[in-house]
Amino acid sequence: MQDLNDKVTGGELTATEWNQVPSEIQNVIEGLGIALSGGDLNQLGKAVAGYVANSTFYLDSGIANAYSLGVVGSKQSPSAYTVGFEIRFIAGNENTGASTVNVASLGVKSLKLEGGIDLTSGLINSGDLVRAFFDGTDFIVQLFASKFSGSSVRNYVIDGRFDFWFEGVSQTSSGYGSDTMWLNENVGSTKVNSQIVASPGEISDVPTTEFYSSTNVASIVGAGNFVKKTQRIENVRTLAGKDVTISFYGKSGANQPVSVQVAQNFGSGGSPTVTDLGVKKFNLTTSFARFENVVSLPSILGKTIGADSFVEVTFWFDAGSNFDTSTDVLGQQSGVFDIANVQFEEGSSSTDFNEEDIAISLSKVSRYAVDFSGLIQMNTPSNSVASAERMGAYFPPTTWRVAPVVSNIAPASSQIPVASADNILFTFFGAVPNTLITVTGFFADARI
Description:
CATH topology of the largest domain: Jelly Rolls
Number of domains: 3
Radius of gyration: 26 Å
């Protein structure tokens, strides 16, 4: 588009000059695959929102160690590498050593770790989501430690201290619903899972303990009945082929046992789940004590990994005879079972519970769930019409695992959310001219 800033009041634009302006706008809209329509005056906004939604995502068509990235659809890409240029892509091949990337044919650049270190074999696996940014010389790969670097992670359980209860402090339903990162399931038998405020010094080894999770079980006889609590640790590659130690603090209302089990789930379309790893029954007393068990996780060599794979750690409180193998014959029982400070760490011996700063814990939880309470707002223009669409956006503190399911939107009027792993776009309908429209809360769920 030519520079038209030399035009003065009373001057004229030729047809060629004028057509450059709407052509630029039209190209942005059509580049997102949006068909032009005279009845929709918000197409440019939708196109901009589309660019924002996956602006850093590219498609890989390269080979091992030489990743070649192209834009999604007919979108435009930047014309040159600049400092801070960010990329995300799903790797088509595993790397076997030092690797390069060529983004939108802008030129081949090295992929490096922090400090300018070359990638070593197996850091990138086929199907991995890779994120990197350009530092002026190379693309620096940002590896999630929980996925790639066991040595830098102390506790692979997220919120083992039970600090976060986004959906409520009590739950009777089966599934997620109280302690945010924990799946509380039951069939046949019933339960109430609750947040309990720890008394000062109640768990003297971990003075930062503020809460623990309590499950009150009402057992109903049935071979397939159960009550259990599970955390799913993202990516079945986590600690595969290594010894891990599970530790936790537990007590019960009447000196009763619980069982702990580990499993490797290879995700949708993946190899069959490897269950019943490290099954052990622990006899709890009426006072908190620490328990631990060492588990050898099998290698995943030769396995097929599908979408949403995970390693899971399960506490069994009540189990019909169908689950004898998974629970070391725990059996069926009613009672109250309290669990605190769960740790899942690499190695064949336990270390002290990792009393992580709560801000760090929150950043980890935010990859899977966000309970937003605040203000997202925009003012409708004076030419708004009843059928108009207006958009507001929320950007999470960290990229979500997947595009989240958005619920509990407040106020519950006409906001229609469109979510990606990077943001949520709220569309408002029927906006009155010169009106401030807002979103004050929602829950975004990207858990496994």
